[in-house]
Write a structure and sequence with these properties.
Blueprint (H helix, E strand, L loop, with lengths): L2 H13 L5 H20 L4 H8 L2 H14 L6 H14 L1 H36 L10 E2 L2 E2 L2 H33 L9
Antiparallel strand pairs: 1-2
Helix pairs in contact: 1-2, 1-4, 4-5, 4-7, 5-6, 6-7
């Protein structure tokens, strides 16, 4: 394979670094296989690169497709989403960080909120009043017995809202990466 095509593949691989190694290798092999097939049909290196397009855009499409396969959260997916931001342009620099980071923060807060309620309730049962944990609105202050169910409801609501924002992140990524070029065309 020609030097410029190897450099092209190297650029794509660098843009795909946040992906799992196995996925990245499979994508590069797929593109390389397509390049070799096009070369066997007499297509020049320049024509192949024009057909495939900008390596950054091609990598963005593959990265978006890999992220969009599942809406489950994992730290590896989060790092892939962060890499996608850098490739996605203005929408990736404003909207995606907001939806993904807020989604994660709300999911974590949703998990912590009931724990705080349990800590306040356990402290109350042991005879301690933990003033740092609770709800105060004007002159109303929720005691430990009232705070526990409130903290659970608030925690569930925050977690659901966070999950919805994470799913919105995946929907946005899918819409951005729809422009994936089909290699065989």
């Amino acid at each position: 394979m020609e030097k410029e095509l190897n450099e092209y593949l190297g650029k794509i691989e660098r843009y795909l670094k946040p992906m799992a190694v196995s996925e990245r290798v499979d994508i590069v092999k797929e593109i390389k296989s397509e390049i070799l097939e096009l070369q066997s049909h007499g297509v020049s290196a320049q024509q192949i690169m024009e057909r495939l397009g900008n390596p950054k855009e091609l990598a963005k499409a593959y990265l978006g497709e890999a992220i969009a396969k599942s809406s489950r959260f994992s730290w590896r997916r989060f790092s892939a989403v962060m890499a996608f931001y850098s490739l996605a342009g203005l929408g990736g620099m404003i909207v995606l960080p907001f939806t993904s980071i807020c989604g994660i923060a709300l999911m974590v807060s949703g998990a912590i909120c009931p724990i705080a309620g349990l800590i306040k309730f356990a402290g109350h049962l042991m005879g301690y009043e933990i003033a740092e944990i609770g709800i105060e609105i004007g002159s109303f202050s929720a005691n430990a017995m009232v705070f526990l169910p409130i903290s659970i409801l608030i925690g569930v609501a925050l977690f659901i809202l966070g999950k919805l924002l994470w799913k919105l992140t995946i929907v946005i990524i899918r819409s951005i990466s729809k422009g994936k070029k089909q290699l065989g065309r």
